[in-house]
Amino acid sequence: RRVTCVISDVLVGWGGDVARDLGVPWVAFWTSTMTELAVYINLPRLISENAIKGTNGDLRKLGLLDLETVVKIPGLVDLKVLDYMTLHHATDPKFSAAIVVKTFVEAVGYSSQADRVLANSSHALEGNAVRALELCGINIVPVGPLHLNISTGSDPDDPNQVIPWLDKQESRSVLYIAFGTIAPVPAAQFEQIALALESTKNIAFLWVVRPQQLELVPKEFGATARYALKSGGALEHVNGGTVYRGLLTDWAPQVGVLGHRAVGGFLTHCGWNSILESVTVGVPVM
């Protein structure tokens, strides 16, 4: 069959090259927030205009940043460098992953060449960002939240039996805790979260913990939560309790968890998927 269209991630810019070689439309897909896309697209202009004080118009010659700088992007509400991590990281000479931000800026620059850009978002959530991108010449079409196409019924990919555990809890009684799959929680913060949960005495919780961070769980936490691990194994000190008000697991079907009647709150790193999945089911986010 003849190829009639190429769809690729915005960050896979060569998808556009392939489409042009084939003489067909290129549809780029953006998985994160449209506001983030608008910021990345405007970042080179902001830097060249020295709109972020301290950049001196050149990322290679950064001075002392003014984090209180108010940045204006047509279509968006005013943003402070301090309040928006992308602006901060992109202009912070000490940021360890600066090359990642630079790569993103270069990659999203190609999105203006796409015939259409689809985004995992909606007008209701980011109407201002749609306008901001249109002002940049981006033919943006929000098609999300995409996770609404995922069934929240019985999940065969629930090896730790998280949903059956939630079924036994009272409505809106469980705090769900998960911090994504990329950046690990620093050891000191991890321990403080555990001790805070321990001190509450009466809050039920479901905490998704990476296997490599299980050793950070304080020993006194053993009588508070039990483990359900897809990876196998458990720490010995968690096996002696009787009635546990918490469950620690290395995997949870998040869409199903957030849509469960027992979950009343979500402690999260605020990744875009997590935000969409919680907002659409009305679970408060911390």
UniProtKB/TrEMBL annotation:
Keyword Cell membrane listed: no
Claim: tRNA processing is one of the keywords in the record: no
Keywords, in A-Z order: Transferase
Coiled coil start-end: none
Domain of life: Eukaryota
Cross-referenced InterPro entries: UDP_glucos_trans
GO molecular function (one): UDP-glucosyltransferase activity
Family indicated by similarity: Belongs to the UDP-glycosyltransferase family.
Protein name: UDP-glycosyltransferases domain-containing protein
Native source organism of the sequence: Selaginella moellendorffii
Taxonomic lineage from the root: Eukaryota, Viridiplantae, Streptophyta, Embryophyta, Tracheophyta
